[in-house]
């Protein structure tokens, strides 16, 4: 996973306190980035970030992250 994508996603999740240094699951985050959002999803989020402020972008990213984590819990950790 390219570092610029990682840093972009982490930035907004950290702003909204969804991830911290102590509570960071690299495998879960990689699944979120690579299989849930994929490259197209990250591109759309970058376009949204260019046209809005950090608070709104943080709310959007938080909603996506929370929905992803719920789907992982319901499906037993399997995301297709």
From TrEMBL:
Where, subcellularly, is it found? Cell membrane
User: Which keywords annotate this record?
Assistant: Cell membrane, Ion channel, Ion transport, Membrane, Transmembrane, Transmembrane helix, Transport
Q: A Gene Ontology biological process annotation?
A: monoatomic ion transmembrane transport
Q: Which residues form the signal peptide?
A: none
Q: How does it sit in the membrane?
A: Multi-pass membrane protein
Would the keyword Ion transport turn up in this protein's UniProt record? Answer: yes
Q: Which domain of life is it from?
A: Eukaryota
Pfam families (UniProt xref): Innexin
One GO CC annotation: plasma membrane
**PANTHER family, per database record:** INNEXIN, INNEXIN-5
Name listed for the protein in its UniProt record = Uncharacterized protein
Q: Native species of this protein? A: Didymodactylos carnosus
Q: Please spell out the taxonomic lineage of the organism that makes this protein.
A: Eukaryota, Metazoa, Spiralia, Gnathifera, Rotifera
